[in-house]
Design brief:
With 443 residues, this protein is of the alpha+beta class. The chain contains 15 helices and 14 strands. The strands form three sheets. It has a five-stranded mixed β-sheet, sandwiched between helices. A five-stranded antiparallel β-sheet has the order 12-11-10-13-14. It has a four-stranded antiparallel β-sheet with strand order 6-9-7-8, with helices on one face. A hairpin with a 5-residue loop joins strand 2 and strand 3. The longest helix has 23 residues. The termini are far apart. The structure holds adenosine-5'-triphosphate and magnesium ion. Magnesium ion binds next to loops.
């Protein structure tokens, strides 16, 4: 490398203008877009995704270009940082814990504009904490929450000195008294109930804090709720589901429609889309506790939301269809992955005192819909994917789907429970088929 290699190459003003392309040089009239799947232990939804993507078929856009969509399960291997990336969009399920693919995703986004669901650049705020404070700032009803320092020393040679000099002694019981019993203690970055405990009295409080060890904990006021609403959002699509956290996994999502008041229903769907647009999350589930018309968001940052057929059952066809639709839309329209957050726009609304809470929610939602191109997305789906609903309905009734369900049940449950679960999920899927036929007017 010479010492001027960093200098920008200047255009050569003496060069002749580039001639117009001859017909053989014109851009190709077909384009193939590759979706990469970066997977952990799941087989069910990737198999469904591959099957539904194949149902999309070629899409011809107004410019005469015919687009084909394909997918590939990505493997993990050494890479040259300058190596071009073939994958135009990646659905990632690994990067929240596996750093090699995480770094590959960042390189793909920065160097090749690969579209990511979700982008690791958004992970820094993908604990509960950032989303709590952001939604508090928007004026939403996040329950009162405190963050307390680590119980155990942090593994760093500088900790002893820093802590002796700057860690203020604090009164855990006084904080608890302010929040009131019962309350919840849970990691600021939790998931899967790791380290979550309900605290009924001082004894529980001391024990839970002692047990927290190296985890950084929130203490949160309890919300007495009528319904736990779990909203799964994929791009601009959201399904608000009646979730029962106390039930075993296969029974957590109840199939109940209209379980919320119209106002709470509107708010839950809006909050999920708003928080996702704010942080650039495009495949996420959002948990809210609902009492009457009041909605209390408590957990809304999942880099890898649950989409197993054995959890979602009835909602599974919708979820995979939404993933396929949003991927197709992003690829064919050339949507660019978001690199910048626009939080200031939300805060400018939050800071206005001439708007009611409801008007603010509408204004946040308008920014979120701008982020997701919601109106354009639905118009595009109507124009280019009119056949997809019927094709998915047919696929869910096919042997291929039964095989997928059976193999998932076989890997999830012990032999003596499999028939029972096949009947359980088969019944719920049959219910979806029935409702979908009514919705599509083919009953
Ligand atoms: N403030 C609260 N009020 C009432 N219940 C709560 C509160 N916070 C948490 N819970 C209960 O504790 C459960 C776990 O809490 P939370 O969702 O915050 O943890 P998590 O580790 O993310 O769990 P998951 O992965 O199941 O979402 C919730 O499903 C809910 O039943
Ligand atoms: Mg949760």
């Amino acid at each position: 490398m010479t010492d001027t290699a960093w200098q920008q190459e200047l255009p050569d003003s003496s060069a002749t203008p580039t001639p117009a392309p001859t017909p053989s040089e014109r851009p190709p009239s077909t384009r193939t877009h590759l979706v990469g799947l970066l997977l952990g232990a799941e087989e069910d939804w990737p198999t469904a995704f591959e099957a539904l993507l194949a149902l999309v078929g070629p899409i011809t856009t107004d410019d005469g270009v015919t687009h084909h969509l394909t997918s590939e399960r990505l493997t993990i291997e050494p890479f040259d940082l300058r190596q071009p990336v073939r994958t135009e969009l990646v659905i990632d399920r690994l990067a929240h814990w596996y750093y090699h693919p995480r770094e590959w995703l960042k390189k793909a986004a920065l160097m090749n504009d690969t579209y990511l669901l979700n982008s690791p650049f958004t992970f820094q705020s993908m604990e509960k904490h950032s989303a709590y404070v952001a939604l508090m700032r928007l004026g939403l009803k996040v329950p009162q929450t405190w963050l307390v320092p680590y119980k155990n020393p942090v593994d760093n040679v500088r900790w002893a000195y820093t802590s002796a000099k700057y860690n203020r002694p604090f009164d855990l019981k006084a904080i608890a008294n302010e929040l009131g019993y019962p309350m919840y203690m849970k990691p600021f970055d939790g998931g899967g109930w790791r380290g979550v405990s309900r605290i009924d009295d001082e004894r529980d409080l001391i024990k839970a804090y002692d047990d927290s060890g190296e985890m950084l904990m929130h203490l949160q006021a309890t919300v007495e709720y009528d319904h736990f609403a779990r909203a799964l959002s994929i791009g601009p699509e959201t399904m608000v589901m009646d979730f029962r956290p106390e039930q075993p996994m296969h029974n957590r999502y109840a199939v109940t429609h209209d379980f919320l008041t119209p106002s709470a229903g509107r708010q839950t769907a809006a909050i999920s889309r708003i928080v996702n647009a704010m942080f650039g999350w495009e495949f996420n589930s959002c948990e809210m506790l609902v009492k009457g018309d009041d909605v209390y968001p408590i957990d809304y940052a999942n880099a890898c939301p649950d989409v197993a057929v054995t959890s979602l059952h009835y909602y599974f066809p919708w979820a995979i269809k939404a993933l396929v639709r949003w991927s197709a839309y992003c690829l064919v329209t050339g949507r660019q992955g978001p690199m910048d957050l626009e939080m200031r726009r939300y805060f400018d609304v939050a800071d206005r005192d001439d708007l009611s809470d409801e008007e603010k929610l509408d204004a946040y939602l308008a920014i979120a819909d701008e982020y997701f191109d919601t109106a354009a997305y639905w118009a595009w789906c109507e124009r280019h994917l009119p056949h997809l609903d019927a094709a998915v309905l047919e696929w869910v009734q096919s042997d291929a789907f039964t095989h997928l369900l059976r193999s998932t049940v076989v890997t999830t449950y012990p032999a003596h429970e499999r028939d029972r679960f096949m009947a359980h999920f088969g019944g719920l899927i049959a219910l979806w088929v029935k409702d979908e036929k009514v919705r599509l007017g083919v009953a």
